[in-house]
């Protein structure tokens, strides 16, 4: 899957690492409602050009997943800042 890396020069490899790090940092620095969005730009950093359609859960399952995710943030990041800002 990553055979293309063998053909890259050292400089090209360094640039590839920088590009991937930028993408990871952009995703990492997402906050608030941005965490819930579809992120095709992140997997667009991969050399294989795919735009997979996600399997979208029905509303009840989706909302349960959102609640579980939010609960996990309380457990894993109890000291993280909180916001009451509404989504537009």
The DSSP helix count reads: 3
Determine the N-to-C terminus distance. Answer: 40 Å
Strand-residue proportion: under 5%
**Helix-residue proportion:** 40-55%
Q: Can you tell me the overall shape?
A: elongated
Mean pLDDT, all residues: 90
Largest sheet: none
Explain how this protein is built.
By secondary structure, the chain is mainly alpha-helical. 47% of the residues lie in helices and 0% in strands. It is built from three helices and no strands. The longest helix is centred in the N-terminal third of the chain and has 19 residues, at 10-28. The radius of gyration is 18 Å and the shape is elongated. The protein starts with 9 loop residues before the first helix and ends in a 12-residue tail after the last helix. The mean pLDDT is 90.
Key descriptive features of the protein:
single chain, 88 residues, mainly alpha, 3 helices
Short description:
The protein is mostly helical. Helix content is about 45%, strand content about 0%.
Chain-wise SSE layout:
Elements: H1 10-28, H2 40-43, H3 59-76
């Amino acid at each position: 899957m990553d055979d293309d890396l063998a053909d890259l020069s050292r400089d090209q490899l360094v640039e590839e690492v920088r590009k991937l790090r930028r993408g990871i940092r952009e995703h990492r620095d997402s906050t608030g409602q941005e965490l819930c969005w579809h992120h095709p730009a992140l997997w667009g950093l991969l050399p294989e050009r795919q735009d997979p359609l996600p399997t979208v859960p029905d509303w009840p399952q989706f909302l349960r997943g959102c609640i579980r995710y939010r609960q996990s943030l309380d457990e894993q990041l109890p000291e993280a800042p909180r916001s009451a800002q509404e989504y537009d």
